[in-house]
Structures are given as structure tokens and as C-alpha cells.
Design a protein that fits this description.
The complex is a heterodimer of chains A (490) and B (443). Chain A is α+β, with helices and mostly antiparallel strands and 490 residues long. Chain A has helices at 9-22, 79-99, 129-143, 212-215, 222-234, 249-261, 266-269, 339-345, 380-385, 436-439; strands spanning 28-44, 47-48, 52-65, 68-74, 113-117, 149-167, 172-190, 193-199, 241-247, 299-301, 324-328, 331-332, 355-356, 365-366, 371-373, 389-401, 407-419, 422-427, 431-435, 443-446, 453-462, 467-475, 478-486. Chain A is globular and about 70 Å long.
Chain lengths: 490, 443
Amino acid sequence: MGRGPTSHMQDLLAIADHFRRSARSADYWSLRLAGEETDELAVRQGVTEPSVLGSSLGALLTLVRGGGIGYGATSDLSAAGLSAAWERASRWADLHAHLGLFDASLHPRSSLRADYASPVVEPWESLSLVDKLDLLRAGCAALEIDKRIVDSSAWLGRRRVEQLLVTSEGGEIRQIFDQVSSGLAAVANAGSQTQTRHGGGADWGGQGGLERLARVGFREDARRVAEEAIALLEAPECPVGVRDLILMPSQMVLQIHESIGHPLELDRILGDERNYAGASFVTLDMFGAYRYGSDLLNITFDPGVPGELASAVADDEGTQAQRQHLIREGILERPLGGRLSQARSGLPGVASASARASGWDRPPIDRMANLNLEPGVASLASLIAQVERGLLMDTNRSWSIDDSRNKFQFGCEMGRLIEDGQLRGLVRNPGYRGISASFWRSLAGVGDAASREIRGVYTCGKGEPNQSIQVGHASPPALFRDVEVFGGGE
Amino acid sequence: MRDGAFFNLSDRLSRQLRGDEVLLCNLDGEDSDFVRLNGNRIRQAGGLSAWTLSLDLIQGQRQAQARCDLSGDPDQDLRRAQALLDRLRERLPHVPPDPYLNYATEATESDQRPGNRGLTGDWDSAGAIADLTHAAAGLDLVGIWASGELHAGFASSLGHRHWHASQNFNLDFSCYLEGGKAVKANLSGLAWDPKALTDKLARVRRDLDILARPARAIPPGRYRAYLAPAAVAEIFDLLAWGGFGLKDHKTAQTPLLRLARGERRLDSRVTLREEHARGLAPGFTAEGFLKPEAVTLIADGRHQDCLVESRSAKEYGQAVNAASEGPESLALDPGDISMAEMPYRLGTGLAIGNLWYLNYADRNDCRITGMTRFATFWVENGEPLAPVEVMRFDDSLYHLLGDRLEGLSRERELIVSPETYEGRSSASALLPGILVSGIDLTL
């Protein structure tokens, strides 16, 4: 039923071919064309929300010319539109040549030819719109188990991005990214206490098709979500004090993201982000020697994990992506960043190929892509058994960290007490705070491969102009010693 | 894309409607220059032309929505929009009737062009950047210049015609010393004024002189504090996330639930309004409703009204008074303490210039956490003595705007959002600074 979304790649190839043949003289240029198709479906309290189809198409031209660099982005992909973008990029390149922060010759050049497509087992179109809405209505209805559930929602969406990067040096990189996202949310209220629980894949993004619904347990998760929301209403507040802490993968994602990923971004270290997203406590001289965490800490940049949110063959500067250790056995080895930042930094070695743009309308900046904590050897049960007096926290709900990515405070949807190596009752409004530079040194246990979950973050914001991008994080649960924890209330 | 082209596109699409179909069309567009700066040099410079068309096809009680980018070429755009309309028409029979469908059925018109200088594309961003780098010579300046045209339009098959066009700039920057100490500043407006830049940089240089002193480390605890308008803006930016919307109130998710239920109240000097008429955002909603001049959210420390977008209005039987349920033109009433007097009223404590990365520690008690950032000074007897190293706070707004609020400044600052995630923002806030007898620092 209904036609499928537009396929853009053939059109993009034709536009690129015409552009190549008519391109004017420059030291180097790259043209990144992107077409994006989205479909958003949702049911709230049994009522189907308006569905929203999206279709985006545009290009960003980067021009290196006369000792300067400039860009022009446009949704007009006609010859005249791209010519106007060239003129615009050219004017900015002229100014950059006089007032630029660095020499334009540092800009990386790509001749890479490569292809990538997300693994998709069940295409979005394999389920009719009616069946998708029925699925959402069933999920939403299953959340409404008690009159204290005051809001319930279920959602399902797809995003398909077809991107073509061509360069003046013969580079041609075709990438097709497919995602299906889903989620469930139950809001419970009693008196002036409100608790929200998410599930069904709400914080579990990944590439792929509708097969992801089974992977995140969408069809069977509603009752657990609703029951936990109700139970949290009646649970005691999380205790205040210093405790051992086990973070489940749903919170480890955020912990890795904020206190390892962002501090290792080269553009922060180089000062580009100081006015907005911030700098970093990490400095260039730390690479190769700095002890970031305990021996158990192994962090990789891994673009090749099937189905992870930011898997890709290359970044938006045209650099081939490959697996690398950023932190090995606790020692900091290399940062995150593209080849331009690598050249500016003067650091030796290979860049992590993570200059990425949020869409056709933004230039690439240094980003996380897939940033993962490598598994250890402990089962979740054995991690719990190591705790005499502690807490387990699950599903991030609050995040805050200073502009050098050091002093953090995070909150979770749900906590469980651990006493004498055994899981005990629920606690509500659990939170913890710490300092990145010391927190990872208290890492005392890392879950095994069986306990690892491949997740990610949908909205990572940084950059001027602002960019919100998706990044992947895979992590097992992990145990930290002597963490400051707290609960809710004034 | 100009208003004529958009209205023409809407008309051509409307002529293709069948039976009792209704079509709502929205346009959002920008033609922007973006220049990133670091070390008072250009880090990344470029420009963007983009227009997005949103369609809402309605038949009876059913509706389906879609959006697509436009190229600016009338025929090509008509083809793109037609293809989208066809997909919506195919979808419509398969979606159930929407009980909360709500759009303006009375055709209205408006034309707002704040700051319009003819929209001839004559903005000289390059000249402004040259002015800036010259005036800031010797400073480690980092930030963003964003400027150009912004367009928003609404038209429908019922005859609505609304257009909002503006041309402005927003220079958001900070200047750094060694050790990460910095002063933040913003200059925004409708016309570039090199004198205003010079004045702003002179103030930055004065603050940098104090920042250059050795930083003072203070232990966690409760401190008297003055929060400058930019810091107050960060608090209200967070509170905008779920604080004021009708749906959040009706589903008990608002962090102001205890206030709304009358269990708590803020200081009686706290009156907060969404001032649509003063703001820089379009005066119409995506469903064709006209915004009222203002909505009083908190009056004399008590909850008064919510922001109500079209779906909530239908669901809960109230009138539409906002385009979305987050504020975009907020104003907090001023107090009676002059800015000049504020340091002496503070006496000894913290003068907090900016806050950063706020989030809820516990929504149930409107407890928020965040960091100090940029220029925060230790003040003794009204004199700023030294910068303070960044500190985390964790406190309830029922205290900071309630029992620990000592006063508000007489002068207010207009803070224009530099945000550009979904295009250049038209949000702004008119805010005083606040003096509190204590703020809890935790880390």
C-alpha cells in the first residue's frame, strides 16, 4: 500500500557528474550531496498522532582556493544553484585567505572511492502503514495498566539518508544509512510525585530495518515499562552517600559519551568549541602517556560494528574509517577528529576519520562516531556479587557536565539497592556525580561480551552553527567504586 | 524565496485539491552567513540557502503531514510539492480520524517585516568580520557570526496569507585568557553598528582585567549570589523544557507541578509572561491561529496560565495561545535594585555571569543542576576580587525564585538566542538579574 520513498542516489550521481564537468578551477573542492527520507508515526493515549513524512535534498560545496577555504550550502541543486553555492564559497575562501586561522593547504584531500549500505533485513515498506499503526496502538494500550498512568505513548520512525561525496581528485563515496527507531513511554503520577519510564527501544538506536523491533523487544516491553513506572512512585528515594555503583549499558552510553567522547574531540582541544560546547580537560601532551582510567578501560573508535548507529565507510572529509583504540588498558592513545584537525594539532598518527556533518546544510566538524567500551570478563551477576553496599542504575534521564568535561552529574530513571552482593529493592530519582579525570580510575569491573549492548545517542549537539548528530556507543555494564550518589527532594 | 512565490505555490497546490480536502502550507527559510572564529581568526566560513515547505492535508477529521526542501525554482518546487501531496493523499484513508485536529478556519492575513531593509541581500558580513577582527586585536576571541534573512510563511486553501521576514545578525563570542578563564558577550540586532561592538569589547576587556587575577577555589556550600541576566536566561531555558505547556501540566510532568497545584509558591515579585507581541518570532502558528499579545504564566509568584498549542487546545478544551508549548518570547518583570547598586546589595558572595548545561536533578521539586561558566567573580563588600573556578550547583527553583530571592534588577537585558539547530532561532528573552541569599554548590 502506498508508494515507497524517493530513491535519491541516481539523481545525486547525475548532479555530481554534471557538476564535475562544469567545475571551475580551484586547488581542491568537495561536493557532498544528501537526500533524506523520514517517516514519523506515533500513538499517544490511544490517539494516533499526525504522521509526518519528510523529504530533504541538498548539497554543501567546500572550496579550497587562493589560500583560503569556504563553503556554500544550498537546496537548489540545479546548475544555477550549485554555481551560486560556488560563488558563495569562493567569497568566503577569499576572506579566509586573509583572516584564516590556519593555512588552507592543511585541508585534507580525498581520492577515496568506496561504498557503504546499512544492513537491512526487513525493509520499512515490508509492513503496511495500517499494521504499523496497529502495532503502536497495541503498545500504547499495553502501557495503560493502572489509573496512575497519566500519559502513555508509543512511536516508530524511519530515516534513510543517501549521501554522495565527490571531490576534485576523483573521490567518490556513496553511503546509504537506514535506521528504524521505536519507543514506549509511561508516565505515572500519585500526588505530586511523577515518574517516567522508557523502553521499547526509546534509547536504543541503531542502523537497520524493522528487524530492530525484535532486537529492542518493542512488542513485549510495554508491561515492564508501565509496571516499573508505577513501582517507582512508591519506591523510597535513592540514598545519599558514597557507594559502589553499577551502571547498566543504558547509562554507560551517556557516561562514555560525556566524559570520554567529548573530552577527546580534537576541535575542543584546539579551542574551536570554547564559545559553545566547551573545551576539554585533555591537552595535546597527554596522548600516549596519560592514565585516563583503570587497566580495565579499553575504548575503541569502531566504524565497522554491524548495525551500530554511526557505522560508515568514511567520514565527511572523505577519510576511510577504521577501527582504532583511543584508550588501551587505561592509557590515552589518540583523540577523535578528522584529518584537518589532526594536521592542525601536529599530532602524529592516523586521524580517527570522524569529521562529520549533521546534514547537507552543515560543514563537517570533529565528532564521535561509534565509540565503544570493549567488553571485560565479568557477568552482570558477578559484578553485583562484588558489591557489599551499593546501587545499580538504569536508563539515563538527566545529564550535566562542565565545559571542560570534568565535573558531571547524571540522573537515571531507575535504581536498585545492592546489599551483600544481592540486588534489593527499587529506589527512585537516583543520581550520581563525579569528576571525569578520576571517575574512570575507579572502574573496578567491566561486563563480558554477552552483557554488551550496542546502543547510541540520537541527539548529540555541538558546533557553531549548531549541529545535532547521532553517535553509536556499545557497552557492557560496569562497576565503579566509591561514587557520590543521591536521590530526589529539595 | 519571497512571499509572492510561496503564496503562488500554495495557490497552485490548492487548485489540485479534491472534494472537501483542505491544505495548510508552512514555509521556513533562511539565507544565512555563518563565520566561526577562534583566536580572533576565521576557523570556518560559509553560507546557506534553504527553504522547507510543510504540508498538512486534511479531509474531514483525518490529517497527514509532510515536509520537503524547496529549491527556489517555481516549477521544480511545484513538482516536489505535488509528489508529496500525492503521498499524503494515498496515506489519508489509512489513518484514523484525529479527535485533536485543530486549525483556524477563518482566513486571516498578516505581514511582519521587522528589520527589513528591503531584503536585497546587501548584508556585508565580510565587512563586519573585518571590523570585528580589527577591533578585537590582541584578544583570544572565539565564537560565531550568523546573519542574513529569515522567512516564515503560512498559507492555506481556506485563504490564509501570513508572512514574516526579518534580516538580522547575531554575534555570539567569548574572549579567553590562559587557564580557560573567559568573558562571554553577545551583540545582536537589525543593523550593524561598529560603535556598539567597540563598546562591548571595552567592557569585555575590563572584565578580563579582573579575570586575570589568580582564580579562587571555593568549597561546596551555600553562597549568597547575584545571577546576571544571561545566567537567569539559562535557568528559564531549562524551565522551558516541560515547565509551561498545557499538556505537561495536564499529565503531571511539569517541574512546576507543586506550584500549579498551589502547594508551593514563588516570591511575589516573580511575574513571568510570554510576550508574543514584543518577541521576534512570527505572530501566527502552523495551523493559522494568531497569537495573543501576551500570556501570563506566573503572576505574583503563583501559577496562572499555560502555553497552549493547537492539539492541546482541542484535547483539553482551551484556546490556542502559542505555536508550541515552549516559550520563545519570555519576559520576567524587573525589580527595584539598580545594576549599579547590585554588587553592594550582594555584599560578599558570588557574582555569576553565566550558567551552563543545566538539567533537572529532580523534576518533582523543580530541583536543577548546572555549572557556572565564563566570568564568575568572588565579591567582598561590593568589590569583585577574583574569578572563581567553575562550580556545580544543585538547588530548587522554589528556593532561588522563592524563599531565597532577595531582589531583581531594575534594568533588564534582551537576550536573543544564538541557537541554530533548526535554523537560526527567533527566540528571545527580556530578563533582569536576580539576587539570592543562597545557592547550593555541590562540586
